[in-house]
Specification:
The protein is α+β, with helices and mostly antiparallel strands. The protein contains 4 helices and 10 strands, in the order H-E-E-E-E-E-H-E-E-E-E-E-H-H. The strands form 2 sheets. Strands 1, 5, 6, 7, 8, 9 and 10 form a 7-stranded mixed sheet that branches. A 3-stranded mixed sheet has the order 3-2-4, with no helix packed on it. A hairpin with a 2-residue loop joins strand 6 and strand 7. Helix 2 crosses helix 3. It is globular. The C terminus is likely disordered.
């Protein structure tokens, strides 16, 4: 509950991943919320940071470019052992995308995923069409993962009701032609608690597991 400093979460996540590698801890999924900041992934381009002094900027080891974290956004850190789940990063990313899609569908949305454009999107037909004539889309969930000895860390962010204006100081994920949205921006009165319930149910549905591990339920959801 409450806002977790990003540096604290990163340190704890590193410790947990090391413990999973050693066989001393179970897999884990953390649901957090951070104070406002920007993170720069391994592919971040300096010119995509438009106002570098607005919020703290933290360079991290996940894949991807610049993104925003802040109040009203659910951050999901995913520490899973792919040694036991198939050593295939592309399949794993697809699993994460389908997990988010299934959770968002429970609120009546029709989320989209696209090859070559990681994340989860929704159509915005009320907005002007894209230059190629396609229906405008906004991003509602971002995914950025790193693997260490096939243990995943970092993860997913889903916009519930953050201040979307805070995205204006970066080019989110390096993509200029698309916007960013949230559940509340789409007119859905969804709370963080509502989303958390959907996240848990959808993980079990998409993965086919009742839970990550019965003994670690208090550490996961």
């Amino acid at each position: 509950m409450g806002l977790t400093p990003y540096e604290t979460a990163l340190q704890k996540m590193e410790q947990r991943v090391a413990a999973i590698q050693m066989g001393n801890e179970n897999e884990s999924i953390w649901l957090l919320e951070h104070p406002s900041l920007y993170t720069a992934g391994t592919s971040a381009r300096p010119h995509d940071l438009i106002h570098p002094k607005r919020f703290p900027v933290i360079h991290v080891s996940r894949g991807g470019q610049y993104t925003y974290h802040g109040p009203g956004q659910r951050v999901i850190y995913v520490m899973l052992n792919l040694n036991q789940r198939g050593k295939d990063i592309h399949t794993f990313i697809e699993f994460l995308e389908h997990w988010v899609v299934d959770a968002l569908e429970s609120f009546g949305l029709r989320p989209l995923i696209h090859k070559g454009r990681i994340g989860v999107w929704v159509e915005r037909p009320e907005k002007p069409s894209l230059p190629d004539g396609q229906v405008a889309e906004d991003k509602i969930a971002a995914i950025g993962i790193r693997l260490r000895k096939w243990i995943s860390f970092h993860g997913i962010s889903i916009n519930v009701d953050p201040d979307l204006e805070h995205y204006s100081s970066i080019v989110p994920c390096g993509i200029k032609d698309y916007g960013v949205t949230s559940l509340v921006d789409l007119g859905l009165p969804v709370t963080m608690a509502d989303l958390d319930i959907a996240i848990h149910k959808s993980f079990c549905k998409v993965s086919g597991e009742q839970t990550l591990n019965a003994s670690s339920i208090h550490h996961t959801f």
